[in-house]
Amino acid sequence: MKDAAPKTIYLKDYTAFGWTIEEVRLTFRLAPRATRVISQIRFAPTSGAPRQDFFLHGEDLRLIAARIDGQPVTPTVTPEGLTCDVPDGPFTWEAEVEISPETNTALEGLYMSNGMYCTQCEAEGFRKITYYPDRPDVMATFTVRIEGDEAVKLSNGNPTGCGEGWAEWHDPWPKPAYLFALVAGGLVNHPGSFTTMSGRDVALNIWVRPGDEHKCAFAMEALKKSMTWDEEVYGREYDIDVFNIVAVDDFNMGAMENKGLNIFNSAAVLASPETSTDMNFERIEAIIAHEYFHNWTGNRITCRDWFQLCLKEGLTVFRDAQFTSDMRSAEVKRISDVIDLRARQFPEDQGPLAHPVRPESFQEINNFYTATVYEKGAEVIGMLKRLVGDEGYARALALYFDRHDGDAATIEDWLKVFEDATGRDLTQFKRWYSQAGTPRLSVEEHWQPGTSEAAQGGSYTLTFRQHTPPSPGQDVKEPQVLPIAVGLLNPNGDEIVPTRMLEMTETEQSFTFDGLASKPVPSILRGFSAPVVLERQSSREERAFLLAHDTDAFNRWEAGRDLARDALIAMIRDGAEVDGAWLDGLYRVVADSTLDPAYRALMLNTPSDSELAQVLFEQGVVPDPQAIWDAKDRAATARATRWKDALPGLMAEARVDAPFSPDADQAGKRALGAAVLAMQSRLDGGAAAQAQFDSADNMTLQLSALTCLIRAGAAETALTRFHDQWQGDRLVMDKWFGLQVAVAPPKDAADVAATLTAHPLFTLKNPNRFRAVLGALAGNHAGFHRADGAGYRLLADWLITLDDLNPQTTARMCSAFQTWKRYDAARQALIRAELERIMAKPKLSRDTGEMVGRILG
Ligand code: TRP
Ligand code: ZN
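A: This is the predicted complex of the input protein with tryptophan.
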């Protein structure tokens, strides 16, 4: 959309804005194609700020009038904003602009979704609403007047008045423009209330389209739990009289933490047993918590500039993970998070899009809302906490809230509170924020037996080496601080050295355990104590031993995962048979009814095709996506066959007889049940799945049955019935669209996706629907990488079309191509051609241009 050459912004160029804002008053006269926004802003020069022109951001605005202290002025307007001569002292800026929400398909700024007005301002969307210093370090109180016929008109903070055709809001807390929000439409609410720890009553509301009222109760409970948890665990209390949440269908991401007025993708808030899976419920609970926790980590303490994004996002992801661990199972949450980290963050860190947790430059900030900033950012905080201990962490956080409340802060501020609260020097630790790439950690062991007089005097040494491969712009990496949690087991399976946190700071470093009677079996990187790739050559026997005996739930799971990976790699590389020892060892854990069913279900989850492709690539083998898929398919059938007689018993254990509840216990059973049903379906052609589909009274069971039927090639009538049953429910139809593509046999996936893009309910305007089809295609590894390039072509076609409407979502989805250098020359040539075709599109957005440019390298 920008014709000028894209500009790169650098962290090192940060300069403060030359004015502070005392107060912002906004009036909105709503009209779909001609909304008027009238602003009145009190500016005062900041003493000591660098000299600069008075510049306000503004994009796609029609300036009607501008005044300074009541006198008309004529600013110099460019596509990025305006400059204007201003008085030396304080002054009042007034502007009237016109914008067109109805034609705003980018879903950034003020736009319309299903006839309702809503906003999305993070990161730089406020400049599409009015002229303003749209940067997070400029904070102000906002008073907002909304004029329009809509029944419900909301903005940030507390309501201060309303009448026929108008409503006014005041937010008493100074905030950056990215936290501004406005919603207006024919909404209905699901009300609730909360009394804070100091006894203040807060009105809670979830606002939805009429017809969705019955899908709000779960989110409301999640909100209350989040509010209680943040009081109990972090001492953080809510700070205004109302908390509004609005569900919006057309939304680029999950949700947004606007002060007092969170706006959610409807998929991240609406839930009912009939329409939502257990995974949907869990995700909703986590996102509600995440956005609520931002009230302190993000809003009360915000970011000085967008390079500091991980300051709020890494910390808030860390906090929502703690919350989920407390509400559900900590082990299951940890394992799920590591699966997710490896699936989304590792490929980013290992490819052309690698960037530090705190990037040092960008063209389009929207491209940096990444797994690295969010998930690796959270991992870095987890390591900090491991290094300083729970108490040190609590002291540091108390100091952070105390010292920085009301600030726009930096990573330096963040680390300083840890240094001041704990006396630790974090200079080296800070590399986690500046060095991109996943460290590789290798380890060697040395056993020195005791003498015959002192049999207990054996010593065991672990020698670690760390190495971080180069990444774009960073050829050489310095050693990082790695907390390595290690426990030792003796050959009987008893733990002889409980978990110890080894702190590695050098490139190569040894740690010795003395006083041992026999050579131990090490359990290394327990709980995944650092986000690294552990390269340990250990025997199959040792892995099987840890799978059977490790007292650390994560590493026990990891041992099973390593066995699975090695077995699959041997099948793919050498045409090996399925490793029976792996299946038998796994069976003993999965059949252990003393273990949590959710954990047992995770044990049954095998490494993804994409992860296996990366392993092969690192072994110097060019991955063949179809061969990977075939090996996994063969292994799954072998497993089902080998466990044939045990399946009915497992199925019975997974049965839930109580009325549906989305709690962790029931969800865990259903997850186990789904895995067992998948095995059963490989033996009975889908008969059991069909029975479950026919009798299912909740979406979790219905969808897991449908998945099995598709895989068994027996889903034709089920898909039709599902379609007819749910065609009126947007969120369920997203599942219908997505599942068919995700589970399609590789040779068909691109064709299934292409057919679905012609379905009358497919639309480019709704990111959920677009992602359901094209995102699922990118996720069907062998289908996407079909040798003739049909998958690449289809995705590129649709990204080129979407870019004119929605650059943000287009750019994000380009990351499907980020792993292209793993594959053979023919595939690389096909992908390169598609990337170049996207690059050559006329009027390519800055968002997509930056992404494709980086991927091409
Ligand atoms: N700050 C939001 C969160 O993490 C995410 C977000 C950033 C976002 N930019 C967005 C959401 C654009 C929607 C659209 O909670
Ligand atoms: Zn967030």
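The longest strand covers residues 19-29. The pocket of zinc ion (ligand 2) is lined by residues 290, 294, 313, 316 (CB under 6 Å).
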